[in-house]
Amino acid sequence: MADIDVKSHDDSGKVRSKKQSTKVDMTPLADLGFLLITFFMFTTTFSKPNVMGLNMPPKDPNKEQQTETPEIDLSNSISIIVGGEGKLYWHQKDKTKLVAQDLHETSYTKEGIRNDILAARQRAKVPDNFTVIIKPTDDSTYENLVNVLDEMEITESSRYGIVDIAPNEVAVYEEKSGTSSSNN
C-alpha cells in the first residue's frame, strides 16, 4: 500500500507534531472473510430436489403368462390422450371402435380433467377397479405428462398406467385436433 509521508516541520521553521500513520492492514480481515465464507458453505443445508415417486410392479420371471384375458369393463376405466399444444382429450370407448365424436376435449384446470376423472370414477360399476390409462402422443410435452400425473395424485387415483397410443386412436386424435403426426 502507498503511505503518505508527513513532514515533522515545514520550511518556516515551525515544528509540527508527528501524526500517526493511518495505514490499515487488510490481510487479517481478508482471512476472516474467507473463513466465514467457508464456514457458511459447509454448514448450510442444500435443498433436496422434489421428485414424484413412480411405483412400478416388480417383474417376476417365474410367473407364468396368463392364458385367458380377463374381461375389461370400459366403465371402470378412462383413457386420457395427451396431445400437443396443451390439448388434452379423454374417452371411455373401445380403442378399435373410437370415433371423433367420442373423443372429448378437456383442459388441465380444476374444472377440466380433474372433474372428468372424478365423474368417470363415480359412473364406474366397480369404483375400486377404476383405472386411468394415460396415452401421450408424439406431439405432447413432458410437462403435459407430468401435469396429468399430478392430477392422478390430486384425485387419489392409485390405479393408472402410461401406454402407447393405438394407431386408430392417433387417427381419431388427428381428425379431432386437426393435426398430423408421425406416430404411424
TrEMBL record:
It is a single-pass membrane protein; Single-pass type II membrane protein. Keywords: Cell membrane, Membrane, Protein transport, Transmembrane, Transmembrane helix, Transport. One of its GO terms (molecular function) is transmembrane transporter activity. InterPro entries: ExbD. It is found in: Cell membrane. GO terms for biological process: protein transport. PANTHER family: BIOPOLYMER TRANSPORT PROTEIN EXBD-RELATED, EXBD MEMBRANE COMPONENT OF PMF-DRIVEN MACROMOLECULE IMPORT SYSTEM. This is Biopolymer transporter ExbD. It comes from Moheibacter lacus.
